[in-house]
Amino acid sequence: MTEPALKSFDPAEYRSVVFFAGAGLSAESGVPTYRGHAGIWAQYNYEDYACQRAFDRDPVRVLDFHEVRRTHVLQCAPHAGHRHLAQLQAAYPHIRVVTQNIDGLLQRAGIRVDAELHGSLWRQRCPSHGLRDDLEAGPYRHRQCPDCGAWLRPDITWFEDRVNEAVFDTARRLVAGCELFVSVGTSGVVWPAAGFAQLARDSGALMVEVNPEDNEASALYTHRLRGPASKVIPGCFRLPG
User: Fold this and answer.
1) Which residues have C-beta within 8 Å of that of residue 169, sequence separation ≥ 6?
2) Pair 64, 49: CB distance under 8 Å
3) Between 146 and 32, whose confidence is greater?
4) Which of 134, 4, 117 is nearest to 63 (CA)?
5) pLDDT tens, residue by residue, 8-64
6) Out of 3.40.50.800, 3.30.1600.10, 1.10.230.10, 3.40.50.740, which CATH number does the structure's domain 32-75+120-156 have?
7) From residue 145, how far is each of 2, 9, 70, 173, 186 by CA, in Å?
8) Do strands 180-184 and 130-133 pair parallel, antiparallel, or not at all (unpaired)?
9) DSSP secondary structure letters along the chain
10) CB within 8 A of 166, min separation 6: which ones?
11) Is it true that domain 1-30+78-118+162-241 has CATH number 3.40.50.11690?
């Protein structure tokens, strides 16, 4: 059943809580989603900007695209839903966060993220020297590895990439062990991440969805809270006191 965003949940009543965040959480801050008629991939061809073949063919073009994305994201601020989740996690360390988002808004709000399923705009990787953070505003500090000169690709799971199994294993462990699973702003269509809701349900978690409207995964949830995350999260998840 779809419920008004009035039901209240107390994280103290659960030994383990997982918030599973998707693009809809960031969209309220002005970050464009990737799918749908207004999504990024409706405007750009991923084969030119978001796959390894594109990077091998023209790394400058791909890095230019991602620098624009970084600049745009920095113009977007965490909203009240992000800030309340940060307060919840500070009060209840057993709240864990798994996200499909690559924009870093959760971290900018002060949230500890346990698994970034699809990587981050704020990291690069060298094929020989591994990962390096790049938290500078806008352009990348380096486009080529200072140690070997190889092109540094964004640490993002692009189309045609294999997922990072270590990160997914961390997420699976957290989801399988949680007693309360809260999905926020996810479409439930991007695999393999879409399988985590079914895993949580099969493991016996109480299932809560926060979304403006139903989607094809909504039937998995016991409680479906409809409205923007900036209002539903502060309104439905209680802080102590």
Assistant:
1) none
2) no
3) 146
4) 134
5) 999 999 999 999 999 999 999 999 776 666 667 678 888 999 999 999 999 999 999
6) 3.30.1600.10
7) 50, 47, 19, 34, 35
8) unpaired
9) -EE-TT--B-GGG-S-EEEEE-HHHHHTTTPPPSSSTTSHHHHS-HHHHSBHHHHHH-HHHHHHHHHHHHHHHHT----HHHHHHHHHHHH-TTEEEEE---S-HHHHTTPPPSEETTEEEEEEEETTTEEEE--SSSS-S-SB-TTT-PBPEEEE--BTPPP-HHHHHHHHHHHHT-SEEEEES--S-STTTTHHHHHHHHTTPEEEEEESS--TTGGG-SEEEES-HHHHHHHHBPPP-
10) none
11) no
Question: What's the rounded Cα separation, in Å, for the pair 61 and 51?
Answer: 12
Q: Which of these is catalytic: 66, 79, 84, 118?
A: 118
In the numeric block, the tokens 């895993």 are attached to: 199
- Residue 49 CB burial class (10 angstroms; 0-12, 13-18, ≥19): buried
Query: What does residue 8 show for φ and ψ, rounded to 5 degrees?
Result: -115, 140
Best CA proximity match to 153, nearest among 34, 20, 29, 62 = 62
Domain boundaries, given as residue ranges, for the chain: 1-30+78-118+162-241, 32-75+120-156
Active site annotation includes 84: no
Model-level pTM?
Answer: 0.93
- Inter-residue contact 102 to 120 (CB < 8 Å): yes
